[in-house]
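Morning, I've got a small favour to ask if you have a moment. I've dropped the whole record in just underneath, so have a look.
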Amino acid sequence: MDPSAASIVGLAPGTRYRCSACGNLTRFDVETAERVRRFWHVDLAGMGSVDEEDRHDVSVLSVTCRWCGASDTVETVATPGPAAVDVSDPGAVPPP
């Protein structure tokens, strides 16, 4: 399982959340509804771990700012730097 995959659930590549009430860019509670298929490997001692994970039908239900508690002021914005994309253009691709 890719550990970075969990951190980007609900966000398109090159985007991040921003709270316009307090300016927070780093701490959010993201509530999602997902359908996930996992391949579990359970050893003979009974300890299990996920070897593969496929996420399907991911929906973001709510995003709440951890700093000020607002949920109606959280927006999706482009990340800074060369990987940034115009989030208002659904056909935009990051520059090379």
The radius of gyration is 17 Å. Residues 5-78 form one domain. Residues 85 and 94 are 5 Å apart (CA to CA). DSSP finds no helices and four strands in the chain.
